[in-house]
Amino acid sequence: xxxxxxDRLPAxxxxxxxxxWDGMRxxxxxxxxxxxxxxxxxNDVTVSFPELAGLDVPDGxxxxxxxxxxxxxxxxxxxxxxxxxxxxxxxxxLAESRPVTLLVFDLLREGDRDLTGxxxxxxxxxxxxxDPATASCQVPAAYDDGEMLLEAxxxxxxxxxxxxxxxxxxxxxxxxxxxxxxxxxxxxxxVVGGWRPETGSTDRVGAVLVGEVTxxxxxxxxxxxxxxxxxxxxxxxxxxAPLAAERSPFVDPVPRVDAVGTRWVRPELVVDVESLGFSHxxxxxxxxxxxxxxxxxxxxxxxxx
DNA sequence: TTCCGACAGTGGGGTCGCAAT
DNA sequence: ATTGCGACCCCACTATCGGAA
Length: 305
Prior knowledge:
Layout: E1 2-5, E2 15-19, E3 24-31, E4 34-38, E5 60-67, E6 69-70, E7 73-74, H1 76-83, H2 88-97, E8 101-110, E9 113-114, H3 120-130, E10 137-138, H4 146-155, E11 160-165, E12 175-183, E13 187-197, E14 205-214, E15 217-224, H5 232-240, E16 244-245, H6 257-260, E17 263-265, E18 270-274, E19 288-292, H7 298-301
Parallel strand pairs: 1-12, 8-10
Antiparallel strand pairs: 2-11, 3-4, 3-5, 5-8, 6-7, 8-9, 11-12, 13-14, 13-17, 13-18, 14-15, 16-17, 18-19
The structure holds a DNA duplex.
């Protein structure tokens, strides 16, 4: 069961609110104290997380999120190094040096009894009674006050909030309107230094390459493609055509230039981007295009931000 | 008839594993 | 031994289509 992107935080006693954890969704199938872990795409990822193999609870099916806590906050970058590891020996070594935590927020089966038909409120009560907490497994709190939690997650730089209707049944695989997510996706302005065509096309804009104005010059901060397809692509193409340049305006090397095909432009166009902050390598994370800033020039961004 | 949800297809960063080089 | 690419993980967004309202 997945959450739908919400636009207004629901209020009232019918809803509870949880922290949106920045990690990897997982179903933990517990049999005789041993957990088998399934990813969202129904891949068996048990070998990647050996420290989660032992769960001291009766047989059942738990729903949760695997996170790599770094100074108390989930680090998706740290988790990324763990989650593709399919070699048991290497996974064990990584579990030693960079352990992960399973945060459980739902109970879908208890013994032979399927609980998906019960309201969330009752599943949650049964989960808390089960108390699966160990050194590497916790049941994070659910809160009544959504606004408070949203503000707290903003201040603590957590990913956001998921609001759930207490009466909702669990529908496996469904993107439910009874689960609403509110990620913090701050908007920022960047200078376009190039673009790449949509795959299978030479002329349609598939993504723009954006950079940050620094005293040293334009520093590459990533590609932005999401949100450009459709009506925006031809508009961008028209704006970028007169800016065509021979060489890259970025002071640092841009990766995968040849692989995806890249056209350079003079750094004059400013665009707005929403993102989930930055990756380890200071690239925009999960960026989406929000529009052209005809009211701004690169000079306006220098020193600001 | 209109509207909405599911799906497919586009795009992003990042990592690992493996086949090709 | 190195490199490139696909398969995963996290996603956002748009267009389309079929069924519900």
